[in-house]
Specification:
Structural class of chain B: mainly alpha
Strand content of chain B: under 5%
Number of strands of chain A: 20
Largest sheet of chain A: 6 strands, mixed
Strand order of the largest sheet of chain A: 6-7-8-3-9-10
Oligomer: heterodimer
Order of helices and strands of chain A: EEEHEEEHHHEHEHEEHHEEEEEEEEEE
Number of helices of chain A: 8
Distance between the termini of chain A: 42 Å
Strand content of chain A: 25-35%
Shape of chain B: globular
Distance between the termini of chain B: 37 Å
Radius of gyration of chain B: 22 Å
Number of helices of chain B: 12
Shape of chain A: elongated
Radius of gyration of chain A: 24 Å
């Protein structure tokens, strides 16, 4: 069971604070959507509106063809995997996972069978009689997932579910979430402030800023062709260079570059660190290496262009050879984005 | 030396607390007519007298019923009030909270006088029911305070998760909130039982024919001291101690884990 979700002109105010402004979003059935943004951007409010915990000030929410705007959480075809897991401490894992089915009036035999199956899916069936406090953080996470999925929701909402886990476990859970979502085909709406996590799991990313959608698309397009300066900066490190249109090219502090302008007046050229290197299509001129640090997969380098020493270009150079601070190199860009 | 003083201090402290009880229990075994020194010998006849006294046994039964029912009512009302005030932001929540706890600061005598006036007006005669209502009045603030203090973010989140999984409000309270607050609920209940069990002034003013144990003991005391009253005291003390031990071994041990 899975359904599409339509968010129609949703606005929400908390007193005088505007959390969301006229959000429009359609989520396809079976899609893995990530709502990404800094804290206070409205992503959690939007998730709460989908889950039925908050009634929006204006606008409507449809799940499938049904208007659920005024339907309480308990009667919605959604379940939530909460940030703090919110497991029931006085119940065994089996009863935790079977709770939603119990509320739907299933017999103990039926709900236990399903709960065992769900616990098995997350690799915890051996602990079905344990209580939540006996588990590690990662295990609690899995129980929360099993509990939310046990009732076969049409939409699963995930509220920063991996925030409390260490990096290695987080990566592992991201892979598991993705594969479980593929297997079940349930619509997932996942909230996070971690852009790497977003790219790891999402079919489409919704970048949010100050209660509005700043960008929307598959991870590749949001990262490589961001729609706004905000999403360009939020999706990862980027060097922004002020530019103005000059004929068919751009006038920048580095000189005139053979890059098509997007508008007549002032604009911004954005270069990702991995797009700047010692070879490429677009010559950026010579620059002095002012600082470098070894990051394992690459050297992260700061360059001061000779033409504009006040500017700092951040580039990722290959592991070998080790760059020497103070040396001067001709730099090239292999990819770019121009934004207004 | 310092060690000795601390031990001596501890012994003195316990002696101070328990000497009255010890004396009371000791002279309940007095083989004589007065529960005062010298001790003339040991006998169980006063216990026999207590256990065969039908008035006393009836009062004991009354006390038990009033304590159980009034505590259950106080617990229920206190729990619902705490849940309501902890979960929903009402205008003037602080005042409402203060208003619920306020009766704790009023003396039982004043409360009893007030209840007496009210019951007279509405035509409820002095009875065990009237006393039970009085005990709900004094124990509700206590139950509310204990339960309210125990509520925290953990419950709120678990309740939200339960609603998300389809639980109605009644089932949230019964299956999630109450079990999570079990230690506090039990503590509130047993404290209420203890207070109701001991309570004299309200029971004295609000009962007439059927009386509770403290009122019965008081009317016995009017006819003078007797080892029989000591025996009742010792039995009541035994019940309290047993209750305390049961609580210590079950509720609080689990709560600590």
């Amino acid at each position: 069971m899975t359904a599409d979700v339509r968010i129609d002109q949703i606005s929400h105010d908390f007193g005088t604070f505007t959390a969301l402004t006229e959000i429009d979003l359609t989520i396809k059935a079976g899609e893995f959507i990530v709502l990404l943004g800094p804290s206070g951007c409205g992503k959690t409010t939007l998730l709460s509106i989908l889950g039925g915990f908050v009634t929006p000030t204006a606008g409507r929410v449809f799940i499938g063809d049904r208007d659920v705007t005024n339907i309480a959480a308990k009667d919605r075809p959604t379940t939530t995997m909460f940030q703090d897991y919110a497991l029931f401490p006085h119940m065994t894992l089996l009863d935790n996972v079977g709770f939603g089915l119990r509320m739907r009036g299933q017999t103990r035999r039926d709900r236990d069978a399903k709960a065992h199956q769900m616990l098995d899916m997350v690799g915890l069936d051996g602990k079905s009689q344990a209580r939540p406090h006996e588990l590690s953080g990662g295990q609690r996470q899995r129980v929360a997932l099993a509990r939310a999925l046990a009732v076969d929701p049409e939409v699963l909402l995930l509220d920063e579910p991996l925030g409390a886990l260490d990096l290695k476990l987080r990566r592992q859970m991201q892979d598991e979430l993705k594969s479980i979502q593929r297997r079940l085909g349930t619509t997932f709406v996942h909230v996070t402030h971690d852009q790497e996590e977003a790219m790891a799991v999402a079919d489409r990313i919704v970048v949010m800023n100050q209660g509005r959608i700043a960008d929307l698309g598959p991870p590749q397009s949001v990262y490589l062709r961001p729609a706004s300066l905000f999403s360009a900066q939020f999706m990862g490190e980027i060097t922004l260079i002020p530019a103005t249109a000059q004929g068919q090219g751009l006038a920048t502090p580095l000189g005139e570059l053979p890059i098509a302008p997007v508008t007549d007046g002032a604009q911004t050229l954005g270069l990702r660190p991995e797009s700047i290197g010692l070879s490429g299509d677009i010559a950026l001129g010579p620059a002095r290496l002012t600082d470098a640090a070894f990051f394992g997969t690459h050297h992260r380098c700061h360059f001061a262009p000779i033409a504009a020493p006040d500017l700092t270009l951040i580039a990722h150079l290959p592991q070998q050879p080790a760059p020497e601070v103070g040396s001067i190199h001709p730099l090239f860009a292999s990819a770019y984005v121009v934004l207004i | 030396m310092g060690r000795l003083i601390t031990w001596a201090y501890m012994a003195l402290l316990y002696a101070f607390i328990f000497l009255p009880v010890a004396v009371l229990v000791l002279f309940s075994f007095q083989d004589g007519r007065l529960p005062v020194p010298p001790l003339r010998g040991l006998t169980l006849k006063w216990y026999q007298a207590v256990l065969t006294d039908s008035d006393l046994m009836a009062a004991l039964g009354n006390s038990f019923i009033v304590a159980m029912l009034s505590s259950a009512m106080a617990l229920f009302l206190g729990f619902m009030a705490a849940q309501g005030l902890a979960r929903y932001h009402l205008p003037g929540s602080v005042w409402l909270r203060g208003l619920i706890i306020a009766p704790m600061t009023v003396s039982y005598l004043i409360i009893a006088l007030g209840l007496l006036t009210v019951f007279n007006t509405i035509g409820l005669p002095p009875s065990l029911l009237a006393t039970g209502i009085g005990h709900v009045v004094i124990n509700l603030p206590l139950c509310f305070a204990i339960i309210y203090a125990a509520m925290g973010a953990q419950q709120i989140n678990a309740e939200r998760a339960a609603r998300d999984l389809g639980a109605s409000e009644a089932r949230v309270l019964w299956l999630i909130t109450a079990p999570m607050l079990r230690p506090s609920l039990l503590a509130a209940f047993f404290l209420s039982v203890t207070f109701s069990w001991d309570e004299f002034i309200i029971a004295f003013l609000l009962t007439r024919f059927d009386v509770t144990l403290p009122v019965e003991i008081w009317s016995m005391l009017r006819s003078g001291l007797s080892p029989k009253t000591n025996a009742i005291g010792a039995l009541v003390f035994l019940v309290s101690i047993t209750l305390l031990l049961v609580m210590e071994l079950t509720v609080f041990r689990k709560a600590r884990r």
